[in-house]
Design goal:
Blueprint: E1 8-14, E2 20-22, H1 25-30, E3 38-43, H2 47-56, H3 61-67, E4 75-79, E5 82-89, E6 102-109, E7 112-117, H4 122-132, H5 140-172, H6 182-211, H7 219-285, H8 300-321
Parallel strand pairs: 3-7
Antiparallel strand pairs: 1-2, 1-3, 4-5, 5-6, 6-7
Helix pairs in contact: 4-5, 5-6, 5-7, 6-7, 7-8
Amino acid sequence: MDTNNKGLLLAYVLDGAGGAKQVGWDEINSWQPGNGVLWVHLDYSNAEASKWMFEESGLDQVISEALTEEDSRPRCTPFHAGLLLGLRGVNLSPGADPEDMVGIRIWFENDRIISTRKRRILSINDMQAALEQGNGPTDMGDFLVQITGTIMGRMRHVIDELEDGVAEMEEQILTTESHQLRSQLAGLRRQAISFRRYLAPQREALSRLLTEKIAWVDDSSRIRLREVSDQLARYLEDLDEARDRAAVTQEELVNRLSEQLNNKMYLLSIVAAIFLPLGFLTGLLGINVGGIPGADSKMGFAVFVTMLLVVVIFQVWFFKKKKWL
């Protein structure tokens, strides 16, 4: 990809057999519908690319604005003879959070496909590799199926890791110090909620795509699109399950922490109850006034200690009888 070529990331003319010829701006500007399906992939944040879409591409103003919109939801919008599709994929760039999803906008019309993005999408690399190996899309309908399927396929690994993380938390809660799991569980729940927030509108977009009558989407492509939509529905179900399991695990963690705290408080209460009468007696006999029993006796201390031991033994017997200990 030449990221400095006026915002042009890549461009291909499909040969109809799974391969494609890579082209540049000159071929893009001279392209005609009869030359084969043209795919142009742009960085919409580049001023030159934005200028080309608004002034030289022949796109409607509404479509140009949609392709360069900074923040957009997943959607499927037929417009005249074309189709505007907005999708989101997981951010698998090094050092990035997967839930910080990246967006791609794609416009289909008259054997021409224009896609735009701001941040890198690895699914585009997969499409490029497939075209160079001769396994890419053959027409616009096939391109639509492959790009949606590739974006969905990239999510599988991330969602599996999320489910495995929740399962691991469920096991660790019984063996690991509970306080160490609170932040990890909270992070997993936030991740599941964030994924679902972005994927739910994507399911609606794919569902509408299946119901729209699009001339260049044949029955075979429509069946494959239905499989992609079902795959996304399963991902959402998995996210719901992971979120609910994380919530149940967090409730169990809170209960265990409360139980640990109650046990410690109960132990402290027992200790305080045992030493309360002992402290009272030692304090009472320790006052500096005349008439303290045993003050002049050599056996006074021994007798007093023996009395304290008897009190402790009685307390322990009493607590066990009441099943407090």
